[in-house]
Amino acid sequence: MAPSESLNVVVVGGGVAAAECVLALRELAGDRVALTLVAPEPDFVLRPLRTAEPFSAGHVVRHPVAELAEAVDARLLVDAVVAVSPERRAVRLRSGDTVDYDALVLAVGAQHRTEFPRAITFSGDRRSTVYNGLLADLEERWTSSVAFVVPPGTTWPLPLYELALQTARQARAMGVEDAALDLYTPEPAPLAVFGAASSEVVGALLSEYGVTFHGAVEPRIGDDGHLVVGGTPLAAQRVVALPTLHGPAVPGVPGDAEGFLAVDDHGRVAGVRDVYAAGDGTTVPVKQGGVATQLADAIAEALAQRAGADVHPRPFRAEIQGRLLVGGGVQPLPPTGDGPAFEPLDAAVKVQGRYLSRWLQSTAS
Hints:
The chain is α/β, with parallel strands linked by helices. Helix content is 25%, strand content 24%.
């Protein structure tokens, strides 16, 4: 297929799924695809390292999204989609412009909702100053108890475990040995989504650092506005919680009751032609960057074949692996041995993507 006949692919998003998709498409399809990247912000931000910032163990990595666009020879529009017209195969942007497509990939992420207004809600997209205040209160003994709370509903619990473990480690380093640290979650076991072996390792880490685990509970707001667990008011002085996640509800694209985009095993959105989706905004239940990149790869393979490349698309099958931040290193999940085996903290390791990790390593060299 000559460049003049290239498949016109528009990828919308500024996170790992969008980045993985454009990198994979360019490598798999070459000039058989013409890429347009619509990103809402001028920077590509690796938020999985956000939990390390309050503890000076790492920092969020940023790259100008223009660097990514240049690497894949994509037209870049720093803008946001406000509606899709599948009949016209066009997207309308916040700026008022309209962009046509042969295939559209929505990697727009999920919406965050604060469930507990009186808690510190750690969404991963805020700076760490509020959390630094909590650490200072622990050091000065103004706070002696902290509850880490996973709300019921759709969420991704791993960052809260990172915060709990690093807070416990920091408190110990500050000489605070008597702080009561508790983690409450609907999960039956610590990070149960990773399997029994991972739960055992994470449970052992929580115990080692003095964080008490309370599983199979659903915290809620009581009549007085305070958190209640199992009918009993939560006694902790400070509460750190995660937001719940809700779908992007893109106008013109079918979604479920929560606004999530239903996709098949090649990333095609149900009920509409030539529209694909990857990332937290889909109905894939595991809201994790590694899983998002796997779905992005499945989409890229399907589109590369459609563009004429010699590619055999593989159906998406989530392989859940993770990296749990503990102090200055990371614990692989599932564990690679019989117990904790920390690896160095590195953005390309924490963020897993067949093509994205390689690009991150090349930009760091």
